[in-house]
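Q: Could you fold this chain for me?
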Amino acid sequence: METSAELLYLLKVADRNDTFGFTDELERSQCLQWLFFWHGGGAPNQGQLNFFNIFAKENIPYAIDRFRAETLRNFGVLEVHLSGKYTGEPREYLAGVGKGKYSVADIGTWPWVKGWKLAGFSEDDMRAFPYLMAWIERIERRPAVQRGAGEKYETNVDVAKQANAGDLKGIFE
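A: Sure. Below is the predicted structure, expressed as structure tokens.
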């Protein structure tokens, strides 16, 4: 099952108070749009970038360049939205009125975007996205996020490459 489908199932079954969703139809629609934007664009692009950067048996610069550019484009869309460029009000979260509310749109997007180092981006690359970086840090400070995504769950490039050389050998053959 896909993560967005799982999040929507949990929202319906386990979140009767819409703590991570919305009762207002416009806000709900906005939440779904951002969840699907990342699910259909950001995650596939960053996933392919991760694959070609870490797991591919050969270095294919065209693929790396293409998925790097697309991931940066996706980051740029998030940056513009979070900056409030077209509304005049910066946002704290992806969906909801005003500054927004922490929702499944953020829950589905954040685990990918916070992995920008794993994807091969440098701090210099990410300087172009100050609102996105603030969003990453804001979500990272949430106590429940810290419990569920702390240091013990971190993956770095060296660990991933080592796993590729050993435990994951043959998985992409």
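A (continued): Helices lie at 3-14, 25-55, 61-83, 104-113, 123-126, 130-140, 143-148, 157-165.
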